[in-house]
Write a structure and sequence with these properties.
InterPro entries: MoaE_sf, Mopterin_biosynth_MoaE. By secondary structure, this protein is an alpha+beta fold. Helix content is 30%, strand content 40%.
Length: 139
């Protein structure tokens, strides 16, 4: 069963990685998205993440189910609240029989989180505050 969560504190990447290890899986792929300082010449100081939590969790579970129906294991954790530069904002992990499957599924899940799950970011930049989230198409 997938591990899906929205949390207020730091993401424990090491602990999540350990939960993907299983003798039946030959490929484990993880993605950790962190708060970066520069985006297209705009300097970010920090980010506040908010979500429509009930709907976000529902959609994340639905996404995970499509992957787990193939026999893979899924972990998706997104942090909410105030994050500083280099803080981990999102973790997506997939364990599968084969690496190519794990790579593809991990990328698909991360892309779908960005485009479909109601999580928004308030970027505190050096010049002004910007809002992003579902409509933000930067990778």
């Amino acid at each position: 069963m997938a591990i899906i969560d929205l949390i207020q504190g730091p993401i424990n990447v090491e602990a999540l990685n350990k939960q993907l290890v299983d003798p039946k899986y030959g490929g484990i792929v993880t993605f950790v998205g962190t708060v970066r300082q520069w985006t297209d010449g705009i300097q970010t100081e920090s980010i506040n993440y908010t979500a429509y939590e009930e709907m976000a969790l529902k959609q994340m579970h639905e996404l995970a189910q499509t992957v787990e129906d193939t026999g893979s294991r899924v972990i998706m954790v997104h942090r909410l609240g105030h994050l500083e530069l280099t803080d981990a904002a999102v973790y997506v992990g997939v364990a599968s029989e084969h690496r190519s499957t794990a790579f593809g599924q991990c990328q698909m899940l991360m892309d779908q989180i960005k485009y479909k799950v109601p999580i928004w970011k308030e970027e505190i930049d050096t010049d002004k505050v910007r809002w992003g989230g579902i409509q933000d198409d930067k990778h």
